[in-house]
Amino acid sequence: PPSPPPPSPPPPSSPPPAPPPPSPPPPAYPPACPPIGYYNGSVRVFIDFESADVPYNNMGGLGPLVDTEFVASSIFFATEPSLPIRAEPQGTYFRNIGSEIIRDNDNATEAQTLFDMFVLNRTKYVPNNVARNGKRDGVGDFGVINLADSQTCLFDYILIDSLSGARYQVSQPFSFYFFDFDTGEDGRLEEKLEVCGIESYDLSDTLVGIDSTIIAEDLGGGCFSFTATVFYGGQNNPGFASEVFIPLEEMSEEVKTLVIPFMLALNFPGGIDHFEVKYSISDAVEAGFSGRNFLFAGYTQGRSVSYLPCPPAPPPSPPPPPPSPPPPPPSPPSPPPSPPPPSPSRPPPSPPPPPLAPPPSPLPPAPPDPPSPPVPPSPPPAPPYRTPDSPSSPPPRPPPTPPPPSPLPPAIPSQCNDLLSRFDLRALDPPEWCNQDDTRRQDQQACEAAYATREDQGDSVTYGLCEYIAPGSVDTLGFCKLGEAFSCPKASPPSMPSPPGPPPPLPPPPSPSAPPPSPCFPPPPPIIPPPSPPLPSSPPAQPPGFTSPA
């Protein structure tokens, strides 16, 4: 027999799969993104001493600025229950010093609230030079409290709503900074600060990675102390807050070595309206002839624009996929089939098969089916199915989405209408406040006949109505306070409504010659005069140069 054909070669194995492309590198981070609040755009409470003014400066009752008119016009000094003295309270008032930005996540809006600060001594205050209190040199962007040697004093920092005069409770955490923590020669005149109720604190090592010269101690009960350890005079006083609240790589070497190591940050929680700090100065070589200045500041909104929020941390790269298993080895070629063994001898022929049976007779034809009812006409054929590659007309465009409804205009406070019956004290010459006149302090009607314009906000104006407090409840002479602030549209106070116009004229009386209409019969039809005879038509106008035929 012929030999079988040789086996076909195995198919070539497929090449191994290509490895996946490498993951892209993580995004580059800006250089100024350390994990601290005032560098990553999270600050929402701002305290700016440079923008503030000091209308009252009387720490310990020692001056140097006692403005009794300011005290008389301030609702805070009239209603604050913790003030031991109302006529000439002891402390320093920083006006327009702070603001808080509060975000309404439901409406995706932000509102800004302004606040003042009053710092008063809760224990006996002994300065070395009281003229240094307030703002440094009167214009700087640091607050200053001067304290004599060998003295300790507890100071209370109270936050005040700029419009209502009541205490202001911040809703978000904030930081307050102290600078120039150093000592005098031989370790004397050592500055020390104690505070309770903070969430945390930061020294220069945790702020910017520079070793600190301040020793921090946990006193227990949520209280801490911070003590200066290195001698310095005035060379390490900060110049401007703008030299400090910047990224590390932008600071000068002088600021890095002389200012930052002597800096302390106290981080307060939200929900407070004041905080207390105890200052101490140790003994001097000669007691009673020297002292130190405590410098403090807050982070300002103007500088916050320099710091964009740090990008979020990149997600971890996914693990590389496991390598693909190697392709199976090719199977060995199958052996050639064995030839059949030779047959020993031819078998005898088989007997013939039996004859086939005759085919069956055909069946008789079936009777014809009855006629079927008529088939209803079939519906029109469905359009043929189109594959994605077959041409087809584009689907109809959906109807345009209707525009969202316009927001409702803001409701106007009801007090805006009250301004119509009052006069503005700030329009007087010179301008006045509610409690600045004895008549208004003693006469409720005179008090509540006035209001005061507080602030022009562009498209609206903030007002306050004068409200009377009877003698004895706050002040023995009575008090005319500036009520809660409210805003009215720029057109307010609204104008008086215009008087109604004259009534429409009465119809003319009927002519005396005409008889009155009959109640039983309709009036006769009007008499129509006969038409006038038509006027002779004038000849048509002739064009220039045309002459009629003779």
Structural commentary:
This protein has 550 residues and is mainly beta. The chain is 7% helix and 24% strand. The chain has eight helices and 21 strands. The protein has helices spanning 68-73, 75-79, 204-208, 253-258, 301-304, 415-418, 438-442, 444-447; strands spanning 45-47, 53-58, 64-65, 91-104, 109-121, 134-135, 143-148, 151-161, 174-179, 191-196, 200-203, 214-220, 223-228, 264-268, 274-281, 291-297, 423-424, 450-456, 460-469, 479-482, 486-489. The strands form three sheets. Strands 1, 2, 3, 4, 5, 8, 10, 12, 13 and 15 form a ten-stranded antiparallel sheet that branches. It is flat and about 135 Å long. The relative contact order is 0.12. Residues 24-41, 305-311, 381-393, 492-499 and 536-550 have low confidence and may be disordered.
Structural class: mainly beta
Largest sheet: 10 strands, antiparallel
Could you tell me the mean pLDDT?
75
Beta-strand proportion: 15-25%
Radius of gyration: 49 Å
Shape: flat
What is the helix/strand order?
EEEHHEEEEEEEEHEEHEEEHHEHHEEEE
> How many beta-strand segments?
21
| Proportion of residues in helical segments | under 10%
Number of separate helices: 8
Query: What distance separates the N and C termini?
Result: 139 Å
Catalogue the unreliable spans. Answer: 24-41, 305-311, 381-393, 492-499, 536-550
